[in-house]
Structure formats: C-alpha cells, structure tokens
Amino acid sequence: MEIKELLKKVKNGEMELSRAEEILKELPYENLGYANLDHHRQLRNGYGETIYCESKTAEQIEGILHSFQKRGSNVMGTRVKPEQYIYLKERFPELIYHSEARVIMLMDHPVEQVGMVAVCTAGTSDIPVAEEAALTAEFFGSKVDRIFDVGVAGIHRLLSRTEEIREANCVIAVAGMEGALGSVVAGLVENPVIAVPTSVGYGASFGGVSALLTMLNSCAEGMATVNIDNGFGAGYMANQINHLAVRTNKKEA
What we know:
This protein has 253 residues and is α/β, with parallel strands linked by helices. The protein has helices at 3-11, 17-25, 41-45, 58-70, 82-91, 127-139, 155-159, 162-166, 181-186, 209-216, 231-252, and strands at 30-31, 36-37, 51-52, 75-78, 96-98, 103-106, 114-121, 142-147, 170-175, 193-197, 223-225. Helix 4 (58-70) packs across helix 5 and helix 6 crosses helix 11 (231-252).
C-alpha cells in the first residue's frame, strides 16, 4: 500500500490510526545493493540505525550516510578508521569525528539530552571504549558524566566519587585487566550497572577474556555485561534505561 493511499484512508475514516501505525512499522527497507537500510527502526524501536563501519569501504559508508541525510535523519557510525574519515569529510563537511572513540556523527537536528548516565573507567587505557559508550548515550539523548581512572588498584579514587555516581540512572563500568570495577560499583549503587570488559591488559588477560569472565561471574546484583570492547552496546542500553527512569519520574511527579 502506498503511503499516500494509506494516509487518505486514515483521513477519510476508512482506517483506524492504530492500524496505519502498524502498517508503517512494517514498511520495506531501502536496498542499496550492499546494504539494506532500515529507515523505520526509529518508529519501531525509538532509535535509528547506527552504521558499523569496520570492514566497510569508505564509498559504502558514503552511500549510507547520503541516504540517511536526504531523509533528515541523524546518523552515527562506529569503528571508523582515520582514512575513512578523511574520505568522508571531503564529501560531508559537517561530519563530526571523535578520533579516540572512532565515532562519526552526521547531525541534521539537535537532540535533547535528559537524565544522567555515569561512565566510569578503571584506567586511562580504557577511555577509548568508554568514550564510545558515552558518545552513544549522548547521541541518543542522555546526559553523561565521565568519571575516568577510578580502578580498584586505588579504590579511594572511586569512593571519593560514589555520591556523584549514585546520581546517575544507570552506570557503565569499563575495565580491562582483571575487570573488577563493575562488581565494586554494583556493590555501591542501587541503579543498574552495565559492565564493559576491554582488551586492555597483559598476556594472561587474553585480549579481554579475563575481564569478561570476571564480570560474567560477578556476585554483585544488578550488573549486566556486554561483549569485549562493546562500548556502543553499553551506551545504547544505558540510554534506554536512563530514558525509562526519566519517563517514570515524570509520571510520579
């Protein structure tokens, strides 16, 4: 059914608005040949599609960005290489690049940021993954408090920021090595904690597997774990939790 026909049926009272909404949610994707772009993901899930840029050519990313841009959509890309950014910047002068997190953003319109997500790291070496998480949460509409280098090797650094962390609706704990930060944070706060293991560490850390297993085997309640170096996944989920908390607080007010 063409969109114009659907809208006419709604206007003429031949179709319920709820039924039209269900049809719109199932509209086809855009086929670029090398990618099927889900332009209606925001309608279904509340948030638009993100480009995972690793292993894509710069030309493919260009085509995807152009497709989102012509629809007036904000779009974010992760795992972007410097050479990809150089190519894309020439074609999209307004493109924003966060080199440490390897994230690009093409913003058509501003996004209101609400609530609070705290992003904590065990060490400075974990910041690139933490920045991917923080930027993701901000892109989708959350305020973010960055609390870096508060690992358990100097736990007094974490304890001095505990009250600040407790103010957040969700906490992201990013750690490599033995990955203990998530468990410690979860034992200190009442709000959900998302643990992110990183590939930071010496040989026996096995590229983040050690931290991952520590976090999966944690005895601290209220903590969930994402994949190794998956800052995007943590930031996305933290944003969802944060927005749920904001909506709940508004209803109770």
